[in-house]
Amino acid sequence: MEQSKDQNSHVGFLWAATFISAMGSLLFGYDTGIVNGSLEFMAKPQQLDLSAFQQGIVSSGLTLGAAFGAIIGGPLADKIGRKKILTLLGIIFSVGAIGCAVATNISVLIGFRFILGLAVGSASANVPVYIAEIAPSEFRGKMVTTAQVMIVSGQFVAFGVNAALTPLGASNAAIWRWMLGLGTIPGIILWLGMYLVPESPRWLVSQGKTSKALEVLKKIRSAASVPTEMNEIEAKNKADKAEAAEQASFKDLFSTRWVVQIVITGATLGIIQQFAGINSIMYYGGKIIQDSGFNPTVAAILNTGNGLLSIVGSILGMFTIDWLGRKKLEYSGLIVCGTTLVAAGLIHSLVPNAGWSGITIVVLVYVYIIFFQGTLGPVTWLINSEIFPQRYRGIGTGITIFALWIGNFVVGLLSPVLLDWNMSNTFYIFAICCVLGLVFVKIRVPETKGVPLEEVEKYFRSKYDKNYKGDSNL
After folding, report:
1. DSSP per-residue letters across 341-407
2. CA 34 – CA 285 distance, rounded (Å)
3. Calpha distance 33→305 (Å, rounded)
4. How far apart are CA 215 and CA 231, in angstroms?
């Protein structure tokens, strides 16, 4: 009985640490989603008087920063520690939110959005790592996927804030400052909360701080499991140091043809994920719904459905990804997303004033979101973690994540211009990208469900390495 109570108390503390650190993921979602409702007000002449292209810059400035934050954040965390980097990110998120809220011109706003982007990118790289390193093996999957759920939850919170504050904008166009500034609250929770949680014991061992790592383990594990896990961590650290000497450099990667082909595959998957149009809808969903015939207040309320269905889709993806397989989910996601985009575009262009057309477009957008978040969203990240050989995994995934964020930046930058030009044509462009994605996945991507990582390596070597004499079963 005492052992059971001891175990339960440790699990409770670990879940608290998980949710505190996952505030970084929630802020990822909040800061990318809050522009959905705030751009309309900051664009007004009496505010920042933004053109469609300037709105794109304000929105995508964050994602450009995230591309660099994802690359910088990992190595910095390795140097100063997981706890310190997340504490620092809490400060940056808080300061960035305040800076955006008080910005007096577009240059200041873009600057602070870029700073927030650095924090978002770093959080995307470090939150899952921290959670994975403190979680016991039996809870690791659930705890790490909390980060993904918190991202879409952050977008849902942002859309809820937009819906609550949009009616006030009729008399106070400066309401956008409150929308952006409220991001300070989870930032402070992350900042101060990280003082209450432990450093990763695995990072401490990697820095030679074995006694401190042991102290942490005693706080987050039952007494009976501490010696065994400590031995495992030390053995893994020793193996990792030996392996680090074998880690590839950029020169090694780009001089190895078959590995370059893996990079192309992974980076293109990330670009396909973005050019399927998800973040055009998540960043500018309010505008899309207004253009479908709804007033701003109703559009803001309906837009909260985008965030809620993102959560549902992400949870469904968690339970189907190992059941149906990666390629089947990619195929189904691209087909459904492309079809719903074409249908929404046709209805908008052919029957724009019909009483049923607006709500039909909203329903089609909802279907698009739930399928995307359950298929293309998680599968792209998972495949990229599986296709690289161990020696190239760190540097390779860093490049592919960078490419994904650049794709996000381009979509965020151009979407306001495209939507102002023609919403139907914008949907058609993204649908064409879905078709191209289908062709690419069919030709280039192996099914990795239940396949040992060594077999995935054989697939790419047998296909792209002329000197390789082996064969692959994929």
Report:
1. HHHHHHHHHHSTT-TTHHHHHHHHHHHHHHHHHHTHHHHHHHHHHHSS-HHHHHHHHHHHHHHHHHH
2. 11
3. 13
4. 14
- Per DSSP, the chain holds a count of helices (H) and strands (E) of 22, 0
Angle at 133 between CA 63 and CA 389, to 5 degrees: 70
Q: Is the pLDDT of residue 353 over 70?
A: no
Checking if the pLDDT of 470 tops 80, the result is no
User: What's CA 255's distance to the chain center, in Å?
Assistant: 30
What does the alpha-carbon distance between residue 58 and residue 40 come to, in Å, rounded to a whole number?
Answer: 12
Tokens linked to 303: 């837009």
Query: Are 318 and 378 within 8 A, CB to CB?
Result: yes
Give 275's contacts (C-beta < 8 A, 6+ positions apart). 407, 411, 430, 433, 437
Spatial contact of 270 and 384, defined as CB atoms under 8 Å apart: yes
- In this structure, what token pair is assigned to residue 276? 């399927």
pLDDT of 332: 93
pLDDT digits (tens, 9 = 90+) for 232-257: 888 877 876 766 666 667 787 888 88
Query: CB-based contacts of 87: which residues, under 8 Å, 6+ apart?
Result: 190, 191, 194, 195
127, 377, 146, 393 alpha-carbon torsion, rounded to 10°: -40
Q: How far apart are CA 260 and CA 271, in angstroms?
A: 16
Average pLDDT over residues 321-341: 89
Query: How wide is the angle at C-alpha 234 spanned by C-alphas 228 and 238, nearest 5°?
Result: 145
Buried b (16+ CB within 10 A) or exposed e, 38-54: bbbbbbeeeebebebeb
Q: Helix, strand, coil % (nearest 5) of the chain?
A: 85, 0, 15
Distant-in-sequence, close-in-space partners of 128: CB < 8 Å, separation ≥ 6: 144, 147
- Residue length of the chain: 474
Provide mean pLDDT across the span 373-399: 81
Q: Rounded distance, CA 277 to CA 368, Å?
A: 10
Distances 382 to 92, 146, 269, 327 between C-alpha atoms, Å: 28, 15, 11, 11
Predicted local distance difference test score (pLDDT) of residue 474: 65
